[in-house]
Specification:
Length: 228
């Protein structure tokens, strides 16, 4: 079970995040300002820190810098209501590992947290955040998907599914593997939701393109490969 420290003064936002994380099996400790966060971080061991930029006593970016100065290497995810590139750059420069703009869907927050924890555990140490396959491009930090330079609007699950394909190109992915990786559940052969989602994704990724990249491997699963 991973321990997360959430530093956020807005009660509503904090409660929303806290509830969602606990439902997903995380242990969460809350701090309503930077001062409390500092003492909490000093006295407890966390697997991940979530810092809001707007805090009553200190800017979250400065708090992040302070934490890094104490030689603490815990993954840090910054939250900000300001959709500004500058904020993102400052946050990442201050030592944050990822950055999420409010408002966000909880599933997006969860995906970022899981990615950071994976990286931390060494399973994804070499993970690239920009994935390219043929004319498909996926930026897993900004959550932007493009094909031939045009944006593809994907839901959070479709994005995760496409990321999975792009991390395993030219390889047949079984429905069991997809269910486990994308939905964190055991695959039940009685359902067809994976086929449904792959079709959603196909419609968005391949429709209108001559070179289809998502293929069915009959009786086995699906594969990302070039038609060319
Ligand atoms: Ca705040």
């Amino acid at each position: 079970m991973s321990n997360i420290c959430l530093v956020e003064d807005e009660q509503k936002v904090a409660a929303f995040i806290c509830k969602g994380l606990e439902e997903n099996g995380y242990k969460v400790k809350e701090a309503k300002n930077a001062g409390l966060a500092k003492s909490l971080i000093q006295t407890s061991d966390f697997d991940l820190l979530i810092l809001d930029v707007m805090l009553p006593d200190m800017n979250g970016i400065d708090l992040c810098r302070h934490i890094r100065h104490t030689d603490n290497k815990t993954p840090i995810l910054m939250l900000s209501a300001l959709d500004q590139v500058q904020n993102k750059v400052s946050g990442l420069k201050a030592g944050a590992d990822d950055y999420l703009v409010k408002p966000f869907h909880f599933s997006e927050l969860l995906a970022r947290i899981e990615a950071l924890l994976r990286r931390q555990n060494g399973n994804g140490a070499e993970e690239e955040h920009v994935l390219i396959f043929e004319d498909l491009k996926l930026d897993t930090w900004s959550n932007i998907a493009e094909r031939a330079g045009s944006l593809i609007a994907l839901t959070a699950k479709e994005f995760t599914l496409l990321e999975l394909f792009m991390r395993h190109p030219n390889k047949v992915l079984s429905r069991e593997f997809i269910a486990e990786q994308v939905w964190k559940i055991d695959f039940d052969t009685g359902t067809n939701f994976i086929d449904v989602y792959v079709n959603y994704l196909r419609n968005k990724v391949d429709k209108g393109f001559k070179n289809k990249v998502i293929h069915t491997a009959i009786g086995m699963g699906y594969i990302l490969k070039s038609d060319k």
